[in-house]
Amino acid sequence: MDANSFISNTTNPVAYHSNWEAPSNIALIKYWGKKAPQIPNNTSLSFTLTKSVTQTEVTFKPLLSGNFDFSFYFDGALKSEFNDKIQTFFKRIEIYIPWIKQYKLIIKSQNSFPHSSGIASSASSMAALSLNLMDLERHLFPKMEESFFYQKASFLARLGSGSASRSIQGPVMLWGKNDTFSFCSDQYALPFGEDLHPVFKKFQDAILIVDKGSKVVSSTQGHYLMQSHPFAANRFLQAASNLEFLAPAMRAGDLDVFMSIVELEALSLHAMMMTSSPYFILMKPNTLAIIEKIWTFRATKKVPLCFTLDAGANLHLLYPMEFKKTVNSFIQQELAVFCQNGQYILDHVGLGAKKV
Ligand code: DP6
Fold it and tell me: Is the beta carbon of 220 within 6 A of some atom in ligand 1?
């Protein structure tokens, strides 16, 4: 489906209220580099999470006169500092949801994970907001098919933040055209498919909070730096090739291949940061200390535990459910000491967003 097929009509406005909860996600094949309008330079693949969620409710008030408007509340308090970002999002998506111009929106949002824990909330928050918009659109156009609902929600979320496109469904999501999965699209994300090995449907993700501070370089700036990056072309080829090897491993439940590609992707992402111009480093000494510990633990205990990194110092530890007890006590006894205030979050793979 191309972008134009997502343009809806205008209708008479109605009073409406909706409430959605959308999860965060962690990429295994990393999206790093994009072109306008928010089109990725390579495919990405992610685990959808369960406990790390944003819940957003929207009250849609029909406007009898005047222009589109909104107010945004976070954790119960009016937060105008997010207005520019939300306004930019609505400007970008207005052409696809022209009916929005006849409403004032009251948006109330909260996250399940602690504020400033270093976990990016743009994916879950843009996904939750987009699902609320689609909830009203489905109310206005009741013949809408379910696949259209989810694809357009992912499409709208993508225009807010690329990784948000993958926070709509689960357990494993793919975004961006590639040769391995012919059904994939640059416009929205889709689930991996029925043939995903069961071990990955219950995979665990422990998020180790190494640093809660704000990043020296944002993801948006990092994506921009890929435009003139000397290794960009090869990086995009590498991501495609990693997906080609990861896909059969995720069907077969081959954990050795899975772990080697996931860690290669994480370190390649950070290698891109370290070789950008200007260069930057988002890992911290404790990030590397934890990686060393994981590698020793894996070699000595023969436990299939690996890590990935987001665009920051925090680590996501990934392992099958059957090793939950062993890994969780390893984290508690040996890794928590490297986390800021000993903080970590035990999450796991999930099925996607839910209506509240
Ligand atoms: C390293 O989705 O946050 O987490 O599209 O500019 O909002 P924008 O960027 P964003 O970038 C995510 C980068 C990443 C990798 C990934 O999630 O695939």
Answer: yes
